[in-house]
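Hi F.,

I've been meaning to write this up properly since the lab meeting, where we talked about keeping a consistent format for the predictions we share between groups. The idea is simple: the sequence comes first, exactly as it goes in, then the structure tokens exactly as they come out, then a line or two of notes. No screenshots and no reformatting. I'm using this chain as the first example so we have something concrete to point to.
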Amino acid sequence: MSELFDEVNEEVRREQFKKLWDKYSIYFIALMVLIVAGAGGWQGYRYLEAQKAAAAGAAFEKAAELSEQGKHEDAEKAFTELAAKAPSGYRTLARLRAAAEAASRDPKAAAKMYDDIAADRSIGGEWQDLAKIRAAGLLLDSAGYADIQQRLEASAAPKSTFRHTAREMLALSAWRNNDTTAARKWLEAIDGDGETPPGLRSRAEALQALLPPVAKS
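Output, unedited:
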């Protein structure tokens, strides 16, 4: 008798499953098609992105070779073209290299290119800080201390990635513009930072020796 009930229950379940399949099979099949298409699309996207990255890498190397050969104008043009169409990572690097190549012919124009990178919030804080440092370095001999201070003071803050370089450049700018108070401020910041590189610390001590003695009250 129990076997009979089992057969009946099995038949009922089979009939219920058939009704469910007849009713919802189209949705199930559509879902499977979407999953397969999505997986294929994702693989295709990854392949295309890898191809773009490979092409950008090859173009970057060719532009770098032009720079090594002393063909700075050609290198600048190649990097500029790459920056316009490369994936985001290569785009930022190409913009920085284009500015570096421009520095050999027109430092002020190169500084403007770095300023544009520094103002681009989409590239991330560290890249922006690096661009600020590079721009200030090109203008250090010609710009007043107030200009360099405006450019670099935020980058000289504790824990900033490029604080050591920023402090040294601020101290140099202050010294060249006869602002001994500001020069001492940044030299003290360099001396008081336990992570200051030894070479930079030595240069700061040498600059400190060039400053006039502090007037006694």
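Notes:
The CA atoms of residues 132 and 175 lie 20 Å apart.
The first helix runs from residue 2 to 68.

If this format works for you, I'll send the rest the same way.

G.
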